[in-house]
């Protein structure tokens, strides 16, 4: 209830990137998510599993995930590529052989997702290399962009063959990655409109509010959510300061207010989309403090989005 007006709660879950190197199997993270955090919706991270592992290992982990999530009453909405694969430039690497491998890697990710009962897969697509003088281009080379779209359409065919229902692009605030503007994101959605499995967007609160790239970000996410609402079907939320992509939890002071975020989602018509907390921690931080921070953050976000 807000201002006397009834509204449906916004679905809230958590990206499992926080589990990296800690709670790495579903037998560990499923009860933690359900019992400690009080959540029944997650976004899997491929930082917890490499789809390039041998089939026997991948298949066993997929079966384990189905069993553990069903037992805990957890829905795995989607699977995102994670930080490990993100670091390799992927579909925009300067070596065409690496681009081919990245496309194959995603196909393997789709295979695992299908086996695990996860209907959606996504993440950032790739990054072109930096120039020797450090300058940044405003646009991809047209040939590189055309190749990227062709790969996305082939990946749509692969996803359809695996029975997936949706693929995601996560826009990032880097000129070397694509897309990083609203217009680029719209163009990409138009150019992949014929994909066998639809491509959709998952914007991130700390990406769209990155002031060093975008300048005035006082409206926060509003322009992204408003202008792309028809092609957004999931959202990442984090605490941040608008100066870097922080991925802090909500025990850290920052510029994202959960109540204002919920109002913005409703105002822009994106409130039917699930919202996932995506936070990362130093590997050396103790696990107990992370759990305490996550409990506090999830409780605050659940209340704001209710």
Protein structure class: alpha/beta
CATH class assignment: Alpha Beta
Q: How much strand? A: 5-15%
SSE sequence, one letter per element: EHEHEHHEHEHEHHHEHEH
Dominant shape: globular
What is the CATH topology descriptor?
TIM Barrel
Mean of residue pLDDT?
A: 97
Biggest pleated-sheet summary: 8 strands, parallel
What can be said about this structure in brief?
This protein has about 300 residues and is an alpha/beta fold. It has helices at about 25-35, 55-70, 80-85, 95-115, 140-160, 180-190, 205-210, 210-215, 220-225, 260-265, 285-305; strands at about 10-15, 40-45, 75-80, 120-125, 165-170, 200, 235, 275.
What does this structure look like?
The chain has 306 residues and is an alpha/beta fold. It has a single domain (12-305), classed as Alpha-Beta Barrel (TIM Barrel), CATH 3.20.20.150. Helices cover 42% and strands 10% of the residues. The protein is built from eleven helices and eight strands. It has an eight-stranded parallel sheet with strand order 6-5-4-3-2-1-8-7. Helix 4 runs parallel beside helix 5 (142-162). 43% of the residues are buried.
């Amino acid at each position: 209830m807000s201002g006397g007006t009834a509204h449906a709660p916004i679905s809230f879950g958590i990206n499992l990137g926080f589990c990296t190197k800690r709670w790495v199997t579903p037998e560990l993270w499923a009860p933690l998510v359900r019992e400690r955090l009080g959540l029944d919706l997650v976004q899997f991270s491929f930082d917890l599993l490499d789809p390039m592992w041998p089939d026997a290992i991948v298949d066993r982990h997929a079966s384990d995930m189905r069993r553990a999530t069903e037992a805990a009453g957890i829905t795995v909405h989607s699977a995102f590529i994670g930080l490990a694969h993100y670091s390799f430039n992927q579909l925009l690497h300067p070596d065409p052989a690496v681009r081919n491998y990245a496309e194959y890697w995603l196909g393997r990710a789709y295979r695992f997702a299908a086996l695990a009962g996860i209907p959606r897969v996504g993440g950032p697509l790739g990054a072109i290399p930096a120039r020797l003088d450090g300058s940044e281009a405003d646009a991809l080379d047209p040939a590189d962009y055309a190749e990227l779209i062709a790969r996305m359409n082939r990946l749509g065919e692969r996803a359809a063959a695996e029975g997936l229902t949706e693929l995601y692009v996560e826009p990032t605030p880097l000129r070397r990655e694509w897309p990083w503007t609203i217009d680029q994101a719209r163009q990409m959605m138009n150019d992949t409109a014929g994909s066998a499995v639809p491509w959709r967007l998952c914007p991130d609160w700390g990406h769209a509010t990155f002031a060093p790239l975008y300048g005035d970000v006082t409206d926060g996410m509003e322009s992204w959510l408003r202008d792309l609402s028809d092609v957004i079907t999931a959202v990442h939320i984090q605490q941040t300061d608008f100066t870097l992509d922080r991925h802090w939890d909500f025990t850290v002071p920052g510029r994202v207010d959960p109540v204002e975020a919920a109002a913005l989602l409703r105002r822009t018509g994106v409130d039917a989309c699930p919202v996932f907390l995506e936070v990362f921690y130093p590997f050396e931080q103790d696990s107990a403090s992370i759990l305490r921070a996550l409990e506090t953050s999830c409780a605050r976000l659940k209340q704001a989005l209710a």
